[in-house]
UniProtKB/TrEMBL annotation:
MF terms (GO), sorted A to Z: aspartic-type endopeptidase activity; methyltransferase activity
UniProt cross-references to InterPro entries, sorted A to Z: Peptidase_A24A_bac, Prepilin_IV_endopep_pep, Prepilin_pept_A24_N, Prepilin_peptidase/N-MTase
Name of the molecule in the record: Prepilin leader peptidase/N-methyltransferase
Membrane topology, record value: Multi-pass membrane protein
Matches recorded under Pfam families: A24_N_bact, Peptidase_A24
One cellular component term from this protein's GO annotations in UniProt: plasma membrane
Organism classification: Bacteria, Pseudomonadati, Thermodesulfobacteriota, Desulfovibrionia, Desulfovibrionales
GO biological process: methylation; signal peptide processing
EC number: 2.1.1.-, 3.4.23.43
Record keyword RNA-binding present: no
Source species of the chain: Pseudodesulfovibrio mercurii
Domain Prepilin type IV endopeptidase peptidase: 109-216
Keyword Ion transport among UniProt keywords: no
Amino acid sequence: MDIIPTWAFYLAAAVAGLELGGLSTIFIQRWIDEEPICRPGGSKCPSCNARLAWRETIPLVSFLLLRGRCRHCGAPIGVQYVLAEVACMAWALASAHTFGLSPEWGVYLILGVMLIAGSLIDFETFLLPDRITLGGTAMALAASFFLRTGPTWQEALLGAAVGAGLFWVLQQLYRLWRGQEGLGTGDVKLMAMIGAMTGLSGLAPTILVGSVTGALGSVYYMLRPGRGGIRGRVPYGPFLSLGCLLYLLYGPQLLRWWQH
Ligand SMILES: [Zn+2]
């Protein structure tokens, strides 16, 4: 932290978070529309398909300048895109505060942005892309070999196996009990990624926070006046992801405080 002033680090973190958030909105849009992810070319308006100039795609700034509407057709810009950008910026700042300027920060910044993008896709489609869950598992396991803080590779591997195994068993039990799909296979793969990020010791607190916030979310969904699309189901991915991010930020300190 001596190399650059603190304020400059946080400013860079905020900008990096917004930019990654902007990239993730392109990923979200293309994944949901089943378009090639790696096609070159910028974003387009989902309602009139007009190509957007670079100045219309500056994260957050453009949304505010355009007052939330497409300049070409006037269609409202989906609030989930702004949400993705703001959430990624918040994650970039919070993780910068916890990890400081370090390789850990870089790795967890990317993994967190992947969880946020996956969560928004899960909310909209009840699906989680393998690119995020399996890609994230591979990345978190690889990172555990060289990062100095965070789980060792043995803990990360165990976390991934136990996380995915536990949710696979839950999925099978639910299927036997209700005769229908409750937990998706995407959630099982997501738990492999989350377990690899938190390590075995972080799994229980992560699932606890995920369950409590998920239960609160379910109540909100049930009480919310009839909006279609939810079909009485609640996606669990976003709540498990939230538990994972909160654990990464505060879990190890809390556990240390608890043990003393
Ligand atoms: Zn438009």
